[in-house]
Design goal:
Radius of gyration: 19 Å
Structural class: alpha/beta
Order of helices and strands: EEEHEHEHEHEHEHEHHHHEHH
Strand content: 5-15%
CATH architecture of one domain: Alpha-Beta Barrel
Largest sheet: 8 strands, parallel
Helix content: 40-55%
Distance between the termini: 35 Å
GO molecular function: oxidoreductase activity
Organism: Stenotrophomonas panacihumi
Keywords: Oxidoreductase
Pfam families: Aldo_ket_red
GO cellular component, one term: cytosol
Number of helices: 12
Length: about 325
């Protein structure tokens, strides 16, 4: 496994794959959650990403379920010191936006559910243009001063707003976003690489990308419309979005490289992400320990320059 990677200039260091906690309290119940987190830590990894809103989209859930299960695991396992916990505020309808009042209240709620005294990385889940950046960053700063948060990050920010936020931090001597959480994978590259990546590189941020496997497409399990017919509505949407000439070109390159390494397309997809500049840890989710070990093996997979170039070529927007 590669050496730990920095979360910006926060001083926090992470192993190169983060566990996506969106499955906890939804497709992974309490027993499965505990087993997954135990296996993740035992394998030497340390960054767990969640949000107050997870998993409010599930019928019967309100939100807060993921944090609650992680908190129970902390209490049950005694392994809080083995994990860097990243959570988020702003997107949950119960605690919407980035006003100072909402940030303070949401942080207390998250700390209570997580059964911890400190959030290692507290992220703005989405931008809130109705609140001045100075007010939002000052509110995060108060949490850092109180010892309740160690570092802050941004998710789903445009390049312009991220740049503005970093400038406000400098201008007013406020904490700055040390990380960025964008959508980023071998298929969905342009949004991050064209505008956000230059800001990340200029300011030394760490990137924790989501949808690292393009909602499962890059595992290779969706290759024909018939595959979607057997799947959920999500699977059908994935096929509609990704099952095209470019998507099939990417899968062919993944298959070719995976065969050379006795690996899987998912492992090669994650290894490609890990090899990109300024990536701290792509986020990946699993619902079984077996699935998790398969994904974590990507951290031990080193792709050659030629293989990286092959994947870049196959996934290029203008490839013929």
């Amino acid at each position: 496994m590669s050496s730990p990677r920095p979360l910006g200039r926060s001083g926090l260091q992470v192993q190169p794959i983060a566990f996506g906690g969106n499955v906890f309290g939804w497709s992974a119940d309490e027993r499965a959650t505990f087993a997954l987190l135990d296996a993740f830590v035992e394998a030497g990894f340390n960054l767990v990403d969640t949000a107050d809103a997870y998993s409010a989209w599930v019928p019967g859930n309100q939100g807060g379920e993921s944090e609650t299960l992680i908190g129970r695991w902390f209490k049950h396992s005694g392994k809080r010191d083995k994990v860097l916990i990243a959570t988020k505020v702003a997107k949950w309808k119960e605690r919407p936006g980035l006003s100072p009042e909402n940030i303070a209240a949401a942080a207390e709620d998250s700390l209570r559910r997580l059964q911890t005294d400190v959030i290692d990385l507290y992220q703005a889940h989405e931008d809130d243009e109705s609140t001045p950046l100075e007010a939002t960053l000052a509110a995060f700063g108060r949490l850092i001063e109180q010892g309740k948060v160690r570092a802050i990050g941004a998710s789903n920010y445009s390049a312009a707003r991220l740049r503005d936020a970093l400038a406000v931090s400098t201008q007013y001597n406020l904490p700055r976003y040390e990380t960025l959480q964008p959508e980023y994978n071998l298929y969905d590259r342009a949004g991050y690489e064209s505008e956000l990546a230059p800001v990340v590189a200029e300011h030394g941020l760490g990137v924790i990308g989501y949808y690292s496997l393009a909602s499962g497409f890059l595992t290779g399990k969706y290759r024909t419309p018939a595959d979607a017919a057997k799947s959920s509505a999500r699977g059908q949407a994935v096929v509609k979005q990704y099952l095209n000439a470019r998507g099939l070109r990417i899968l062919a390159a993944l298959d070719d490289i995976a065969a050379k390494h006795s690996a899987t397309p998912a492992q090669v997809s994650l290894a490609w992400l890990i090899a990109q500049p300024n990536i701290a840890a792509p986020i990946a989710s699993a619902t079984t320990v077996e699935q998790l070990h398969d994904l974590l093996a990507a951290a031990r997979l080193t792709l050659s320059k030629d293989e990286l170039a092959q994947l870049d070529g196959a996934s290029a927007e203008d490839a013929g």
